[in-house]
């Protein structure tokens, strides 16, 4: 079982909003060719003192732990250090896979330009430019654990993040391809029509986010909702949430 972070990057689109999604490589060992949010597994670098010292968290970050609760004993909760590292990992993956650099200086100000450099050296870019991974606007939305029937299980933490104004997001053309900005309802409709491949956890998150009209409403909800650590059930050839969790997570 591996800890992982996923980032639902959102920006205004007219009166509503849209999310950035990427198509995973056809050669990927995990959900190949599916459209997903940027993300990946927790690394030793994410857990290092170097990374955590280069991260700026929200002032009320300590309150987050009180909102996280297991929905069953089989879903483990991350430690405080792991939860902090997952925030760093979310920003690292967002940079590596989508090219979006969320950082601030020691005063908390956002730099005018993204530093030059390879997407593969997020921490080095921070240190070289005396910047900090900016997790102040990240909102932990949910925690999903792959069902036990699968040989590779991921305890994935889904974060919601506002896109910086004017930010350009693009796939890395290696692990991911065909980056798109899309409204949640449109992604669901295209999946149902068969021209946008989505997996169950992504569909459920899109359904949840589609209920909100504006980013302000969505982020207000995300920053106050309970975060239930859950694992979907396998039903026939698909998945389902327990009925008690369907509208509660």
Count, helices: 8
CATH topology: Nucleoside Triphosphate Pyrophosphohydrolase
Our count of domains comes out at 1
In the predicted model, the low-confidence regions spanning at least 5 consecutive residues are: none
Distance between the termini: 21 Å
- Would you count the extended β strands for me? 14
SS-based class: alpha/beta
Instruction: Please identify, by name, the CATH architecture.
Output: Alpha-Beta Complex
Shape: globular
CATH H level, superfamily name:
Nucleoside Triphosphate Pyrophosphohydrolase
Largest beta-sheet details: 9 strands, mixed
Quaternary organization: single chain
- Series of secondary-structure elements, N-terminal to C-terminal: EEEEHHEHEHEHEEEEHHHEEE
Mean pLDDT: 89
Radius of gyration: 17 Å
What is the beta-strand fraction?
25-35%
Could you explain the architecture of this structure?
The chain is 27% helix and 28% strand. It has one domain: Nucleoside Triphosphate Pyrophosphohydrolase (Alpha-Beta Complex). The mean pLDDT is 89. The protein contains 8 helices and 14 strands. Helix 6 crosses helix 7. Strands 1, 2, 3, 4, 6, 9, 10, 11 and 12 form a 9-stranded mixed β-sheet that branches. Strands 5-8-7 form a 3-stranded mixed β-sheet. A two-stranded antiparallel sheet has the order 13-14. With 249 residues, it is of the alpha/beta class.
Features:
249 residues, alpha/beta, nine-stranded mixed β-sheet, three-stranded mixed β-sheet, globular
Summary of the model, kept short:
By secondary structure, the chain is an alpha/beta fold. The protein has helices spanning 44-47, 49-53, 64-67, 80-98, 122-128, 184-193, 200-209, 215-222; strands at residues 2-13, 16-24, 35-36, 39-41, 55-56, 68-70, 103-104, 132-134, 139-145, 154-162, 176-182, 227-230, 233-235, 238-240.
